[in-house]
Design brief:
Elements lengths: L4 E3 L2 E3 L3 E4 L6 H11 L3 E5 L14 H4 L6 E5 L6 H14 L5 E4 L12 H13 L3 E6 L3 H10 L3 E4 L13 H10 L5 E3 L5 H9 L4 E4 L1 H4 L4 H21 L21
Parallel strand pairs: 3-4, 3-10, 4-5, 6-7, 7-8, 9-10
Antiparallel strand pairs: 1-2
Length: about 260
Amino acid sequence: MSEQLIIAGKSYHSRLLVGTGKYKDFTETRAAIDASGAQIVTVAIRRTNIGQTSGEPSLLEYLPPEEFTYLPNTAGCYSADDAVRTLRLARELLDGHKLVKLEVLGDPKTLYPNVIETIAAAKVLVKDGFDVMVYTSDDPIIAKQLEDIGCCAVMPLASLIGSGMGILNPWNLQIIIENAKIPVLVDAGVGSAADAAIAMELGCAGVLMNTAIAAARDPVMMAGAMKKAIEAGRESYLAGRMPKKLYSASPSSPVGGMIA
Protein backbone atom coordinates (compact mmCIF):
# COMPACT_ATOMS: atom_id res chain seq x y z
CA MET A 1 0.00 0.00 0.00
CA SER A 2 1.15 3.51 -0.79
CA GLU A 3 2.41 5.65 2.05
CA GLN A 4 -0.26 8.11 1.00
CA LEU A 5 -3.96 7.40 0.78
CA ILE A 6 -5.04 7.52 -2.85
CA ILE A 7 -8.73 8.07 -3.53
CA ALA A 8 -9.99 8.52 -7.10
CA GLY A 9 -6.48 9.36 -8.28
CA LYS A 10 -5.77 12.03 -5.64
CA SER A 11 -3.24 11.57 -2.83
CA TYR A 12 -3.77 12.46 0.83
CA HIS A 13 -1.23 12.28 3.64
CA SER A 14 -3.95 11.85 6.28
CA ARG A 15 -5.79 8.54 6.50
CA LEU A 16 -8.36 9.94 8.91
CA LEU A 17 -11.62 11.20 7.42
CA VAL A 18 -13.84 13.20 9.74
CA GLY A 19 -17.52 14.11 9.72
CA THR A 20 -18.76 17.65 10.32
CA GLY A 21 -22.00 16.96 12.21
CA LYS A 22 -22.99 16.82 15.89
CA TYR A 23 -20.60 19.57 17.09
CA LYS A 24 -21.99 22.41 19.18
CA ASP A 25 -21.18 24.94 16.45
CA PHE A 26 -19.06 25.46 13.36
CA THR A 27 -16.23 26.94 15.44
CA GLU A 28 -15.84 23.68 17.36
CA THR A 29 -16.13 21.78 14.08
CA ARG A 30 -13.18 23.69 12.65
CA ALA A 31 -11.07 23.24 15.79
CA ALA A 32 -11.68 19.47 15.82
CA ILE A 33 -10.93 19.09 12.12
CA ASP A 34 -7.67 21.01 12.55
CA ALA A 35 -6.65 18.83 15.50
CA SER A 36 -7.43 15.65 13.55
CA GLY A 37 -5.25 16.61 10.61
CA ALA A 38 -8.00 15.35 8.29
CA GLN A 39 -7.99 16.52 4.69
CA ILE A 40 -11.26 14.89 3.67
CA VAL A 41 -14.40 16.01 5.54
CA THR A 42 -17.82 14.46 5.17
CA VAL A 43 -20.95 16.59 4.90
CA ALA A 44 -24.53 15.41 5.32
CA ILE A 45 -26.23 17.33 2.52
CA ARG A 46 -29.67 16.96 4.09
CA ARG A 47 -28.55 18.29 7.47
CA THR A 48 -25.75 20.81 6.88
CA ASN A 49 -25.96 24.16 5.17
CA ILE A 50 -23.43 24.50 2.37
CA GLY A 51 -25.28 27.24 0.57
CA GLN A 52 -28.72 25.73 0.04
CA THR A 53 -30.17 27.81 2.93
CA SER A 54 -29.50 31.50 2.43
CA GLY A 55 -29.16 33.75 5.46
CA GLU A 56 -27.81 31.00 7.72
CA PRO A 57 -24.17 30.24 8.62
CA SER A 58 -22.58 28.00 6.01
CA LEU A 59 -20.00 25.28 6.63
CA LEU A 60 -18.16 26.59 3.59
CA GLU A 61 -17.18 29.68 5.59
CA TYR A 62 -15.48 27.61 8.30
CA LEU A 63 -14.06 24.80 6.14
CA PRO A 64 -13.25 26.39 2.78
CA PRO A 65 -13.21 23.91 -0.12
CA GLU A 66 -9.79 25.31 -1.08
CA GLU A 67 -8.40 23.85 2.16
CA PHE A 68 -10.35 20.60 2.44
CA THR A 69 -11.74 17.93 0.14
CA TYR A 70 -15.47 17.75 0.69
CA LEU A 71 -17.15 14.36 0.77
CA PRO A 72 -20.91 14.94 0.45
CA ASN A 73 -22.88 12.03 1.89
CA THR A 74 -26.42 10.76 1.73
CA ALA A 75 -27.09 10.42 5.46
CA GLY A 76 -30.83 10.07 6.02
CA CYS A 77 -31.57 8.44 2.65
CA TYR A 78 -33.51 5.18 2.64
CA SER A 79 -33.81 4.56 -1.10
CA ALA A 80 -31.54 4.57 -4.13
CA ASP A 81 -33.60 7.34 -5.74
CA ASP A 82 -33.24 9.64 -2.71
CA ALA A 83 -29.50 9.00 -2.52
CA VAL A 84 -28.94 9.72 -6.22
CA ARG A 85 -31.06 12.88 -6.05
CA THR A 86 -29.18 14.13 -2.98
CA LEU A 87 -25.74 13.66 -4.53
CA ARG A 88 -26.76 15.33 -7.75
CA LEU A 89 -27.82 18.31 -5.64
CA ALA A 90 -24.45 18.23 -3.88
CA ARG A 91 -22.68 18.28 -7.23
CA GLU A 92 -24.58 21.43 -8.19
CA LEU A 93 -23.92 23.15 -4.86
CA LEU A 94 -20.20 22.34 -5.02
CA ASP A 95 -19.61 23.32 -8.64
CA GLY A 96 -19.40 19.90 -10.25
CA HIS A 97 -17.74 18.07 -7.35
CA LYS A 98 -17.52 14.33 -8.14
CA LEU A 99 -16.20 12.64 -4.98
CA VAL A 100 -19.12 11.48 -2.85
CA LYS A 101 -20.00 9.08 -0.06
CA LEU A 102 -22.99 6.86 -0.77
CA GLU A 103 -25.00 5.41 2.08
CA VAL A 104 -28.50 4.02 1.82
CA LEU A 105 -29.95 3.03 5.17
CA GLY A 106 -32.20 0.08 5.92
CA ASP A 107 -34.11 1.31 8.96
CA PRO A 108 -34.04 4.32 11.32
CA LYS A 109 -33.36 2.30 14.47
CA THR A 110 -30.11 0.55 13.53
CA LEU A 111 -29.08 2.67 10.53
CA TYR A 112 -27.83 -0.58 9.03
CA PRO A 113 -27.13 -0.30 5.29
CA ASN A 114 -29.67 -1.51 2.76
CA VAL A 115 -27.23 -3.22 0.42
CA ILE A 116 -29.79 -3.84 -2.33
CA GLU A 117 -30.61 -0.14 -2.62
CA THR A 118 -26.94 0.73 -2.16
CA ILE A 119 -25.94 -1.40 -5.16
CA ALA A 120 -28.72 0.12 -7.26
CA ALA A 121 -27.64 3.66 -6.39
CA ALA A 122 -23.96 2.88 -6.95
CA LYS A 123 -24.66 1.69 -10.50
CA VAL A 124 -26.47 4.92 -11.35
CA LEU A 125 -23.89 7.21 -9.74
CA VAL A 126 -20.85 5.53 -11.29
CA LYS A 127 -22.50 5.68 -14.71
CA ASP A 128 -23.26 9.36 -14.05
CA GLY A 129 -19.56 10.12 -13.54
CA PHE A 130 -19.34 10.26 -9.74
CA ASP A 131 -16.36 8.93 -7.77
CA VAL A 132 -18.23 6.84 -5.24
CA MET A 133 -16.99 5.91 -1.79
CA VAL A 134 -19.62 3.56 -0.45
CA TYR A 135 -20.78 2.69 3.07
CA THR A 136 -21.78 -0.94 3.28
CA SER A 137 -22.10 -3.98 5.51
CA ASP A 138 -19.07 -6.11 6.35
CA ASP A 139 -20.17 -8.75 3.81
CA PRO A 140 -17.15 -9.60 1.61
CA ILE A 141 -19.37 -10.58 -1.33
CA ILE A 142 -21.25 -7.27 -1.33
CA ALA A 143 -17.98 -5.35 -0.95
CA LYS A 144 -16.56 -7.08 -4.02
CA GLN A 145 -19.72 -6.40 -6.03
CA LEU A 146 -19.48 -2.69 -5.20
CA GLU A 147 -15.85 -2.68 -6.30
CA ASP A 148 -16.79 -4.40 -9.57
CA ILE A 149 -19.49 -1.77 -10.19
CA GLY A 150 -16.74 0.85 -10.16
CA CYS A 151 -16.79 2.40 -6.69
CA CYS A 152 -13.45 4.02 -5.82
CA ALA A 153 -13.50 2.85 -2.17
CA VAL A 154 -15.58 0.51 -0.02
CA MET A 155 -16.36 1.47 3.56
CA PRO A 156 -17.67 -1.43 5.65
CA LEU A 157 -19.03 -0.69 9.10
CA ALA A 158 -17.12 -1.71 12.20
CA SER A 159 -20.40 -1.68 14.14
CA LEU A 160 -23.61 0.35 13.99
CA ILE A 161 -23.40 4.07 13.20
CA GLY A 162 -22.91 6.11 16.36
CA SER A 163 -22.71 3.03 18.59
CA GLY A 164 -19.06 3.34 19.60
CA MET A 165 -18.92 -0.46 19.86
CA GLY A 166 -15.68 -0.75 17.89
CA ILE A 167 -14.76 -3.50 15.44
CA LEU A 168 -17.07 -6.43 16.10
CA ASN A 169 -16.03 -8.63 13.19
CA PRO A 170 -12.34 -8.22 12.32
CA TRP A 171 -12.36 -11.48 10.35
CA ASN A 172 -14.79 -10.20 7.72
CA LEU A 173 -12.85 -6.96 7.45
CA GLN A 174 -9.66 -8.89 6.76
CA ILE A 175 -11.37 -10.90 4.02
CA ILE A 176 -12.63 -7.67 2.39
CA ILE A 177 -9.16 -6.08 2.60
CA GLU A 178 -7.37 -9.12 1.18
CA ASN A 179 -9.74 -9.35 -1.81
CA ALA A 180 -9.99 -5.64 -2.63
CA LYS A 181 -8.05 -3.76 -5.28
CA ILE A 182 -9.43 -0.42 -4.07
CA PRO A 183 -9.04 1.26 -0.67
CA VAL A 184 -11.01 -0.24 2.21
CA LEU A 185 -11.88 2.20 5.00
CA VAL A 186 -13.73 1.45 8.20
CA ASP A 187 -16.83 3.60 8.47
CA ALA A 188 -19.11 3.70 11.54
CA GLY A 189 -18.81 2.27 15.03
CA VAL A 190 -15.39 3.54 16.09
CA GLY A 191 -15.57 4.77 19.68
CA SER A 192 -11.99 5.24 20.84
CA ALA A 193 -8.46 5.74 19.63
CA ALA A 194 -7.84 2.05 20.28
CA ASP A 195 -10.59 1.13 17.79
CA ALA A 196 -9.00 3.34 15.15
CA ALA A 197 -5.56 1.82 15.72
CA ILE A 198 -6.95 -1.71 15.43
CA ALA A 199 -8.63 -0.87 12.12
CA MET A 200 -5.33 0.37 10.75
CA GLU A 201 -3.41 -2.62 12.09
CA LEU A 202 -5.81 -4.88 10.20
CA GLY A 203 -4.68 -3.19 7.00
CA CYS A 204 -7.46 -0.68 6.40
CA ALA A 205 -6.47 2.19 4.15
CA GLY A 206 -8.15 4.65 6.48
CA VAL A 207 -10.95 5.32 8.95
CA LEU A 208 -13.95 7.62 8.73
CA MET A 209 -15.55 8.83 11.96
CA ASN A 210 -17.79 11.53 13.35
CA THR A 211 -19.56 10.67 16.61
CA ALA A 212 -16.42 9.29 18.27
CA ILE A 213 -14.95 12.77 18.09
CA ALA A 214 -18.01 15.02 18.24
CA ALA A 215 -19.60 13.19 21.21
CA ALA A 216 -16.39 13.04 23.26
CA ARG A 217 -16.17 15.13 26.44
CA ASP A 218 -13.41 17.11 24.71
CA PRO A 219 -13.87 16.78 20.94
CA VAL A 220 -10.72 18.67 20.04
CA MET A 221 -8.53 16.55 22.30
CA MET A 222 -10.17 13.36 21.01
CA ALA A 223 -9.54 14.48 17.44
CA GLY A 224 -5.85 14.77 18.24
CA ALA A 225 -5.87 11.33 19.85
CA MET A 226 -7.50 9.82 16.76
CA LYS A 227 -4.84 11.37 14.55
CA LYS A 228 -2.09 9.72 16.59
CA ALA A 229 -3.93 6.39 16.69
CA ILE A 230 -4.31 6.30 12.91
CA GLU A 231 -0.62 7.03 12.44
CA ALA A 232 0.49 4.47 15.06
CA GLY A 233 -1.82 1.78 13.69
CA ARG A 234 -0.57 2.34 10.18
CA GLU A 235 3.07 2.12 11.26
CA SER A 236 2.33 -1.03 13.24
CA TYR A 237 0.73 -2.60 10.16
CA LEU A 238 3.68 -1.69 7.93
CA ALA A 239 6.20 -2.92 10.52
CA GLY A 240 4.50 -6.31 10.77
CA ARG A 241 3.64 -7.60 14.21
CA MET A 242 5.40 -10.57 15.78
CA PRO A 243 3.55 -13.90 15.47
CA LYS A 244 1.31 -14.97 18.31
CA LYS A 245 2.64 -18.08 20.06
CA LEU A 246 0.36 -19.73 22.58
CA TYR A 247 2.35 -21.49 25.35
CA SER A 248 5.61 -20.72 23.61
CA ALA A 249 7.35 -18.11 25.71
CA SER A 250 10.74 -16.80 24.68
CA PRO A 251 13.04 -14.53 26.70
CA SER A 252 13.27 -10.95 25.55
CA SER A 253 17.04 -10.81 26.08
CA PRO A 254 19.80 -13.14 24.74
CA VAL A 255 20.48 -16.27 26.79
CA GLY A 256 23.98 -16.89 25.45
CA GLY A 257 26.82 -16.12 27.86
CA MET A 258 24.68 -16.40 30.99
CA ILE A 259 26.60 -16.92 34.24
CA ALA A 260 26.18 -20.54 35.34
